[in-house]
């Protein structure tokens, strides 16, 4: 089995998935996926292009039939160089439920572990985001690791209409 590939139910649409670092050319497509999700905080298209150009070694996209259908944006945490911090996970609506989000995270953890020496993953999740909690929990279980959470960013810092963000750690 290749790094980032885990035993998950396969469907014809995701069996030939290709995981790779993003490029600047993937940025607009990543922005479209975030925009169309209806739940991700939408950054400018420039931010996603910049992510592909400058943070490719800590991010990943997945292609199905030559089209980018999902992404993870991440960064190496400056205060903890052995930690990958995940900013966003996005998967096209027609590709959800196929295990791609977890496979993206596994791929990222495998690659940054091998290339950068990361040993843990951190991310923030709002209290009502049960899908993300399940995905990150499944990744932790698959890897024989634990998932913990703690208060992190309060709602008053994020502005009207945004819930608090709790810090989740897979270690």
Automatic annotation (TrEMBL):
The residues covered by the N-acetyltransferase domain are: 17-159
Tell me what gene encodes this: ectA
Q: What Enzyme Commission number(s) appear in the record?
A: 2.3.1.178
Annotated Basic and acidic residues bias: 1-10
Pathway participation: Amine and polyamine biosynthesis; ectoine biosynthesis; L-ectoine from L-aspartate 4-semialdehyde: step 2/3
> Quick check: keyword Phosphoprotein in the entry?
no
One Pfam entry for this protein is Acetyltransf_1
Q: What is this protein called?
A: L-2,4-diaminobutyric acid acetyltransferase
Return the similarity comment.
Belongs to the acetyltransferase family. EctA subfamily.
Alphabetically sorted, this entry's keywords are: Acyltransferase, Transferase
Q: Name one GO molecular function term.
A: diaminobutyrate acetyltransferase activity
Give the classification, highest ranks. Bacteria, Bacillati, Actinomycetota, Actinomycetes, Mycobacteriales
Q: What class of enzyme is it?
A: transferase
Keyword Acyltransferase part of the UniProt annotation: yes
State the InterPro entries in the record: Acyl_CoA_acyltransferase, Ectoine_EctA, GNAT_dom
Report residue spans for region: Disordered.
Answer: 1-22
Q: Which SUPFAM superfamilies match?
A: Acyl-CoA N-acyltransferases (Nat)
